[in-house]
């Protein structure tokens, strides 16, 4: 990390610290810690704050008229303190941010991404009275070592797992070009989500008659070379797993692929704004934020123990986005079949130079709106549903025993 960046980061933390210290110390505090600064974090935060507002922990006046705004202002009469820190894809900042939050004795941490969740678990492992950790936007918590099973996990941990439908995603390159024979994929060697996704892509792709070329990377600097290697092996399309290194380095991958006229498919809609030709995958981030918000609200009320609360698996209909701007730069025409499957399209606003994302049909607009924007649900309209959701997560002795037996059988 450069000296300038380090000093800037420290200055921001000190500024935040002065704000935190000026607020009442007897209030419960919730810290949202994210590995990245955009899209998923904002949607998850919005869904969570909608729930906390419904249960009276956040005042409507604390939030701007724009629900998706990143920060909120903590009013003196708020029931809790809410703070947010993000690492901006910098792995070496994870420890720093978690330590800073823990110095302020939070009641709960909401961790966005597997890397941030793992760091929070490491930092709280030896604490006598650790804060609760509720994770979101984590794709493979069991392969990543975050937990062994939904109910077999660290006692201070629960959260919501994102489930990716790779079978549907792997079929997208064939929608674009039914005659395609070879696809390539890249994943980070140290990322469980990437390794799992690469295995899924290989297995499903080969079952569809495709040759799947795989390569691994360790750092961002490897991505351009890895992409060139796939091109040299005859890859006609590149399909990327939901891998945090891939997400951070997507502009590098897309740049190399674009020069060769090769489309890049990314297993997350967030890839569109970073240069993917097609982005598709788990998109129910607002709903996931709601799920985590229900857990946090129940925990603050003393009605939930993370030790006996299972990890929730969040799935939903896949939303597909096509990048008209990137396609135009490489003279690529989307097939009629892929255009009909798409829910949203990205174009570049010539006046502002910023991307513009729009639903492609009224039906798509309804689906996208529900997935990303939705709207706050009043307490009286949601309370019974929330109780049922929490009841479904109870780790009964029978449930724990069943999951342990499955783990034991898998080891034999």
Map the helices and strands:
Elements (H helix, E strand, L loop, with lengths): L2 H19 L7 E6 L5 H15 L26 E6 L7 H10 L4 E5 L1 H11 L7 E7 L18 E6 L3 H5 L1 H5 L5 E7 L3 H16 L3 E7 L4 H11 L4 E4 L3 H16 L4 E3 L11 E4 L3 H16 L11 E3 L4 E5 H6 L6 H6 L2 E6 L4 E6 L2 H11 L6 H14 L4 H15 L1
Parallel strand pairs: 1-2, 1-3, 3-4, 4-5, 5-11, 6-7, 6-8, 8-9, 9-10, 12-13
Antiparallel strand pairs: 10-12, 13-14
Helix pairs in contact: 2-10, 3-4, 8-9
List keywords for this structure.
Rossmann fold, 2 domains, disordered N terminus, eight-stranded mixed β-sheet, alpha/beta, 412 residues, 15 helices, six-stranded parallel β-sheet
Summarize the structure.
The chain has 412 residues and is of the alpha/beta class. The protein contains 15 helices and 14 strands. The protein folds into two domains: 3-163 and 284-310, Response regulator (Rossmann fold), CATH 3.40.50; 166-281 and 317-372, 3-Layer(aba) Sandwich (Rossmann fold), CATH 3.40.50.2300.
Report on the structure:
This protein is an alpha/beta fold and 412 residues long. The chain folds into two domains: 188 residues, 3-Layer(aba) Sandwich (Rossmann fold), CATH 3.40.50; 172 residues, Rossmann fold (3-Layer(aba) Sandwich). Helices cover 43% and strands 18% of the residues. It is built from 15 helices and 14 strands. The strands form two sheets. Strands 7-6-8-9-10-12-13-14 form an eight-stranded mixed β-sheet, with helices on both faces. Helix 2 packs across helix 10, helix 3 packs across helix 4 and helix 8 packs across helix 9. The radius of gyration is 22 Å and the shape is globular.
């Amino acid at each position: 990390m450069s000296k300038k960046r380090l000093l800037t980061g420290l200055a921001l933390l000190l500024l935040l610290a002065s704000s935190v210290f000026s607020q009442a110390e007897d209030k419960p505090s919730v810290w949202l810690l994210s590995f990245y600064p955009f899209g998923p974090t904002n949607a998850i935060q919005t869904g969570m704050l909608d729930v906390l507002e419904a249960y009276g922990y956040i005042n409507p006046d604390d939030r701007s008229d724009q629900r998706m705004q990143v920060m909120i202002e903590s009013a003196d009469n708020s029931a809790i303190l809410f703070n947010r820190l993000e690492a901006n894809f910098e792995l070496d900042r994870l420890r720093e941010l978690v330590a800073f939050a823990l110095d302020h004795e939070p009641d709960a941490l909401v961790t966005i991404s597997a890397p941030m969740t793992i760091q929070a678990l490491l930092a709280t492992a030896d604490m006598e009275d650790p804060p609760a950790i509720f994770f979101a936007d984590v794709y493979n918590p069991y392969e990543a070592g975050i937990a062994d099973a939904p109910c077999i996990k660290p006692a201070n941990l629960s959260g919501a797992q994102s489930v990716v439908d790779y079978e549907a995603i792997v079929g997208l390159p064939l929608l674009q070009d039914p005659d395609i024979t070879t696809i390539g994929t890249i994943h980070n060697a140290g990322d469980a989500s990437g390794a799992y996704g690469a295995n899924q892509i290989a297995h499903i792709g080969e079952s569809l008659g495709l040759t799947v070329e795989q390569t691994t990377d360790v750092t961002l600097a490897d991505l351009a070379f890895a992409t060139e290697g796939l091109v040299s092996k005859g890859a006609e399309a590149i399909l990327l797993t939901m891998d945090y290194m891939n997400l951070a380095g997507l502009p590098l991958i897309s740049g190399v692929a674009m020069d060769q006229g090769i489309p890049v498919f990314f297993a997350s809609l967030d890839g569109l704004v970073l240069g993917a030709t097609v982005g598709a995958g788990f998109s129910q981030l607002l709903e996931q934020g709601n799920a985590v918000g229900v857990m946090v609200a129940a925990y603050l009320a003393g009605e939930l123990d993370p030790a006996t609360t299972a990890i929730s698996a969040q799935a939903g209909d896949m939303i597909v986005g096509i990048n008209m701007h990137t396609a135009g730069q490489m003279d690529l025409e989307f097939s009629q079949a892929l255009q009909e499957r798409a829910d949203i399209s990205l174009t570049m606003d010539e006046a502002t130079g910023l991307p513009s994302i729009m639903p492609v049909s009224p039906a798509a607009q309804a689906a996208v709106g529900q997935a990303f924007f939705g709207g706050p649900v009043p307490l009286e309209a949601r309370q019974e549903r929330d109780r049922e959701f929490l009841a479904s997560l109870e780790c009964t002795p029978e449930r724990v025993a069943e999951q342990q037996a499955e783990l034991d059988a898998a080891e034999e």
